[in-house]
């Protein structure tokens, strides 16, 4: 294929607006998959099929005949959920244009806006497409107006389709060819292959997805990795059609996969450049690092499984670069990791993928977010290495005596909703410490709010509340907005006066009492009764702000053994001693590991 006949494009949209369905239709029309066999072909991961969402961008190459010429169309299907925006920006780097898909029934939603701006800032050609026009309630005119008003796109350029029934889908392919420019890459220049995705395949080892920016790459070539300077022989190369089909060669402008006998998962970093041995080329700019929003500890179910977990995490993070990994350890859970995620859904999906794709069984601790503090005193600053500290783990927060300032992470939220819910949404935002920055109508009946929130306020139940008060009609999206000075406290928990450091949490002053109460109640519900009363307390600066009591309970494992049989008694004592190994002792209080895990888990 000459470069002029290649198009690289993404489909971007709000969750459930029909991206994967449209991708299926495009694959069918171009004969890439047989008709009728159309169950979201590009959602390949088990977690995607179970949850019915896309979490990983996927590539497929299509061949389409138009005006007596064959075109190679490289399609990237991207996720819609806010937690996976990183995947979208990554995919856009390999494209010259996007299909912006909008549900004609729901209209423009918060993630439509966010995704539009990602494409707009990357200066890509945008093809607006209205989907689901087969629905009775489709509001083609209204939604076209929204698209025009919000994004300044011409109404006559908007395509109208039903991805489900196939109506108008052929027009989409034509628009891709006519409106999206071909990649501006040069076959005659030295090779530059950009890694925009990579993953670990249990049978084939590391597989890299390349976007070939210049030159030609063939099987048997020796290529060099820019960041490690290690060199490899290309053992197989090809396109995704829609599964791996070996072609032996890839040219500038194409995207495809490559295998190079890489065993170590750290060698095909997303954002890296590969080139031919003995050539010097300028590497392509890599990706911006993802900024993790929530952190949680991840530990093996049994201490002995640590190495297994380590290898599983290494392989999965090869495929998901947005996860931040650091070592961690806990008195009860042993050696493990502290991982940073883009959101709670991202964390759940990562956990599920570890279990499904790598057979790892893990314990995840309750998630927390990062805070910043400033400290005083030359000696302290020297000890901590800096005046401003990022606190990822609440129990590592410095003593309040030396803290001069607290900062919490903020996000810019976008809410789109029918106008009748304005009052209740405003109230909800205020209750979550939100500050309204802007409010505007995007058509006669819908309102767009811009609200600045503390991240901690929107992570857990904000979206559920928003959905329920708007009968499901409001949508929400957010992006990082840096840190802001605030008033935080550290809440410690004690059992009969002994501190349980794993439970320490940091929160806004106004939330301390509620949080402390909730944790105390949970402790009461999970810790089994013992032979004495246990006082469970939540404290701020040594002052008790919440308390629960766990009543006493007498237990005597040998009581049943009347007199004589000493071997039976020994046996029972031995098994109890073994059980003790699975306990975390806090003073003289025994907490079975599984109860502890229940408290720590989210
Ligand atoms: P995520 O991957 O989670 O972001 O979703 P998606 O955008 O890929 O949406 P998907 O293709 O999974 O479609 C969501 C739902 O809309 C499915 O139940 C589809 O059957 C339905 N759907 C998609 N296109 C159409 C259409 O043209 N008409 C109708 N009536 N339903 C459609």
UniProtKB/TrEMBL annotation:
Subcellular location: Mitochondrion inner membrane
Domain Tr-type G as annotated: residue spans: 4-184
Membrane-related topology note: Peripheral membrane protein
Keywords for the protein's UniProt record, in alphabetical order: GTP-binding, Hydrolase, Membrane, Mitochondrion, Mitochondrion inner membrane, Nucleotide-binding, Protein biosynthesis
Keyword field contains Membrane: yes
Superkingdom of the source species: Eukaryota
Any GO CC annotation of this UniProt entry: mitochondrial inner membrane
Main location class: mitochondrion
Binding residue positions for GTP: 13-20, 77-81, 131-134
Catalytic activity: GTP + H2O = GDP + phosphate + H(+)
UniProt-listed Gene3D superfamilies: 3.30.70.240, Elongation factor 4, C-terminal domain, Elongation Factor G (Translational Gtpase), domain 3, P-loop containing nucleotide triphosphate hydrolases, Translation factors
EC number of this enzyme: 3.6.5.n1
HAMAP family (UniProt xref): LepA
Similarity annotation: Belongs to the TRAFAC class translation factor GTPase superfamily. Classic translation factor GTPase family. LepA subfamily.
Function text: Promotes mitochondrial protein synthesis. May act as a fidelity factor of the translation reaction, by catalyzing a one-codon backward translocation of tRNAs on improperly translocated ribosomes. Binds to mitochondrial ribosomes in a GTP-dependent manner.
Protein name: Translation factor GUF1 homolog, mitochondrial
């Amino acid at each position: 294929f000459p470069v002029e006949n290649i198009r690289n494009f993404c489909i971007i949209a709000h969750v459930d607006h029909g991206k994967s369905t449209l991708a299926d239709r495009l694959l069918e029309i171009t004969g890439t998959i047989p008709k009728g066999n159309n169950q979201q072909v590009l959602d390949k991961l088990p977690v995607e099929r179970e949850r019915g969402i896309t979490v990983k961008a996927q590539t497929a190459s299509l061949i389409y005949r138009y005006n007596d010429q064959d075109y190679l169309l490289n399609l990237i299907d991207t996720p819609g959920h806010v937690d996976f925006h990183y995947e979208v920006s990554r995919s856009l780097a390999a494209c010259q244009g996007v299909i912006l898909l909008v549900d004609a029934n729901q209209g423009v939603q918060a993630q439509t806006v966010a995704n539009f701006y990602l494409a707009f800032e990357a200066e890509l050609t945008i093809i607006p497409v209205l989907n689901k026009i087969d629905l009775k309630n489709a509001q083609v005119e209204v939604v076209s107006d929204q698209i025009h008003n919000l994004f300044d796109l011409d109404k006559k350029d908007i395509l109208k389709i039903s991805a489900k029934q196939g109506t108008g889908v052929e027009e989409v392919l034509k628009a891709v060819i006519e409106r999206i420019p071909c990649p501006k890459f040069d076959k005659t220049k030295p090779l530059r292959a950009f890694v925009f995705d990579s993953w670990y395949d249990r049978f084939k080892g590391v597989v890299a997805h390349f976007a070939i920016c210049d030159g030609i790459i063939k099987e048997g070539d020796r290529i060099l990795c820019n960041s490690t300077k290690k060199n490899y022989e290309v053992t197989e190369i090809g396109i995704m059609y829609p599964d791996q089909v070996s072609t032996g060669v890839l040219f500038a402008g194409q995207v495809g996969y490559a295998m190079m006998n890489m065993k170590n998962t750290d060698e095909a970093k997303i954002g890296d450049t590969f080139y031919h041995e003995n050539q010097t080329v300028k590497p392509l700019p890599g990706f911006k690092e993802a900024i993790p929003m929530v952190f949680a500890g991840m530990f093996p179910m049994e201490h002995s499984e640590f190495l297994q977990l380590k290898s599983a995490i290494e392989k999965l993070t090869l495929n998901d670069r947005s996860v931040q990994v650091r070592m961690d350890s806990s008195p009860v859970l042993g050696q493990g990791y502290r991982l940073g995620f883009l959101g709670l859904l991202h964390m759940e999906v990562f956990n599920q993928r570890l279990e499904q794709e790598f057979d790892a069984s893990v314990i995840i601790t309750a998630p927390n977010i990062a805070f910043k503090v400033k400290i005083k005193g030359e000696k302290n600053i020297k000890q901590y290495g800096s005046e401003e500290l990022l606190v990822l783990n609440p129990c590592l927060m410095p003593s309040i005596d030396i803290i001069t300032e607290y900062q919490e992470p903020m996000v810019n939220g976008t809410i789109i909703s029918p106008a009748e819910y304005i009052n209740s949404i405003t109230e909800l935002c205020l209750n979550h410490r939100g500050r309204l920055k802007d409010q505007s109508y995007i058509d006669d009946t819908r309102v767009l709010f811009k609200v600045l929130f503390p991240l901690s306020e929107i992570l857990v139940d904000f979206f559920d509340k928003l959905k329920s008060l708007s009968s499901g009609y409001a949508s929400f999206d957010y992006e990082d907005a840096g840190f802001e000075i605030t008033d935080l406290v550290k809440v410690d928990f004690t059992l009969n006066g002994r501190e349980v450091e794993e439970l320490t949490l940091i929160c806004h002053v106004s939330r301390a009492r509620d949080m402390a109460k909730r944790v105390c109640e949970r402790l009461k519900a999970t810790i089994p009764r013992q032979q004495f009363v246990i006082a469970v307390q939540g404290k701020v600066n040594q002052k008790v702000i919440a308390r629960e009591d766990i009543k006493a309970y007498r237990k005597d494992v040998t009581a049943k053994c009347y007199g004589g049989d000493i071997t039976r008694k020994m046996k029972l004592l031995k098994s109890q001693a073994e059980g003790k190994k699975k306990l975390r002792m806090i003073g003289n209080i025994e907490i079975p590991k599984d109860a502890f895990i229940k408290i720590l888990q989210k």
